[in-house]
Amino acid sequence: AQKVTQAQTEISVVEKEDVTLDCVYETRDTTYYLFWYKQPPSGELVFLIRRNSFDEQNEISGRYSWNFQKSTSSFNFTITASQVVDSAVYFCALSERGRDDKIIFGKGTRLHILP
Amino acid sequence: NAGVMQNPRHLVRRRGQEARLRCSPMKGHSHVYWYRQLPEEGLKFMVYLQKENIIDESGMPKERFSAEFPKEGPSILRIQQVVRGDSAAYFCASSPAGISYEQYFGPGTRLTVT
């Protein structure tokens, strides 16, 4: 069965610190996609990244970076030099290629960046 | 190029009333998905539709909830006889045909049942 686990319910860090959000997934498919979304206090979902299961290269986008490790079924997200505007709920999610319908979301990690 | 549109953005209903949530997919997208986000939870899949066809409704509650995506017009998620437990954010996503991993999400409708 497919499942996404975000063990960290809530994290608080002081501005400018680095922070890593953990994500562990379960799937039986060999082809799947992993996502991260940001949900700011305004409530909309902001797409951050999609990664397919065949691409294990780490990705960096500005202060954001992602570490995909198939061996541990993890897709962790790091924010470097955090800013107050990074405060939000972050969701990790999974979509299986063999099931062309749903995206499975984790329960989210609420990140507080303290000034 | 407009994204996925949902309306209303906020909806207040009294217990027992009906709620209708609308979703207009992105231009060129023929597939629509509805998700529900209960307070302090992640999004949960409800239903997947193509035009005039329900493909997967495995996440829909068995009673009071229905969805449609007519040939013309937006997709509608209908909740009859709402209860307090229906209070949630309802997100719609759309994708091109056959590319479900490219789902684009709308801003959501926040339903409050009083």
Brief synopsis:
The complex is a heterodimer of chains A (115) and B (114). Chain A has no helices and 12 strands. Chain A has 115 residues and is mainly β.
Major beta-sheet overview of chain B = 7 strands, mixed
Unreliable stretches of chain B, pLDDT < 50, 5 or more residues? Answer: none
The count of strands of chain B amounts to: 11
User: How would you describe the shape of chain B?
Assistant: globular
Largest sheet of chain A: 6 strands, mixed
Q: Which structural class do the helices and strands of chain A define?
A: mainly beta
Word description of this protein:
The complex is a heterodimer of chains A (115) and B (114). By secondary structure, chain A is mainly beta. Chain A has strands at residues 3-5, 10-14, 19-21, 24-26, 32-39, 46-52, 59-61, 64-69, 74-79, 88-96, 104-105, 109-114. Chain A contains no helices and twelve strands. In chain A, strands 2, 5, 6, 10, 11 and 12 form a six-stranded mixed beta sheet that branches. In chain A, strands 3-9-8-7 form a four-stranded antiparallel beta sheet, with no helix packed on it. A two-stranded antiparallel ribbon of chain A has the order 1-4. The termini of chain A are far apart. Chain B has 114 residues and is an all-beta fold. In chain B, strands 2, 4, 5, 6, 9, 10 and 11 form a seven-stranded mixed beta sheet that branches. A four-stranded antiparallel beta sheet of chain B has the order 1-3-8-7, with no helix packed on it. Chain B is globular, with a radius of gyration of 13 Å. The mean pLDDT of chain B is 93. The A-B interface holds A 4, 33, 37, 43-45, 47, 50, 91, 93, 95, 97, 100-108 and B 33, 35, 41-45, 48, 55-56, 59, 89, 91, 93, 98, 100-105, 107-108, 110.
